[in-house]
Design brief:
Layout (H helix, E strand, L loop, with lengths): L10 E4 L1 H8 L5 H14 L1 E4 L1 H8 L5 H10 L2 E3 L4 H16 L8 H13 L2 E3 L4 H6 L4 E3 L3
Parallel strand pairs: 1-2, 1-4, 2-3, 4-5
Helix pairs in contact: 1-2, 5-6
Length: 142
């Protein structure tokens, strides 16, 4: 977590979709890269273990994952028990409401991490995030 400076620290959680767009050179990758540079000037960029694990699937060597995240100055911030419990509770509600298997618990863990431990989430606009995390500020270059 960010050091206390006498003011509220800005912590921006980064979603796997953002990292994948940059790494794979997708059409939005350059926009995301520039956007993260701006966000880094505002606050601290972090990724939870779910994002790191999902993103690691793109790499044949584990050292390359850490190097990529370090190059982007994205720190590691483990899920707190509060965030994990919130994710499970929201996922249960999602399934009870008939939510399709399109979204699984990792999506809710990432959203809960950002809502409990960060000020905002850099992610592609996904309607379920706005629905299940209405107080979470989603940010993107678009």
């Amino acid at each position: 977590m960010a050091a206390w400076t006498g003011r509220i620290a800005v912590i921006i959680a980064v979603d796997t979709s953002v990292l994948a767009a940059i790494y794979k050179g997708e059409a939005t990758g350059d926009a995301w890269l520039g956007f993260l540079e701006i966000q880094r000037a505002i606050g601290q960029l972090v990724a939870c273990e779910v994002v790191v694990a999902e993103f690691a699937a793109f790499f044949p060597r584990t050292d390359d994952v850490a190097d990529f995240l370090n190059d982007l100055v994205i720190g590691y911030d483990a899920l707190s028990p509060q965030a994990a419990i919130r994710a499970g509770s929201l996922f249960r509600a999602y399934r009870r409401e008939g939510g399709p298997r399109e979204h699984m618990i990792p999506d809710f863990l990432i959203g809960a991490h950002a809502s409990v431990q960060a000020n905002r989430l850099a992610a592609a606009d996904r309607g379920f995030l706005r629905r299940y995390f209405p107080r979470l500020t989603l940010v993107s270059p678009h």
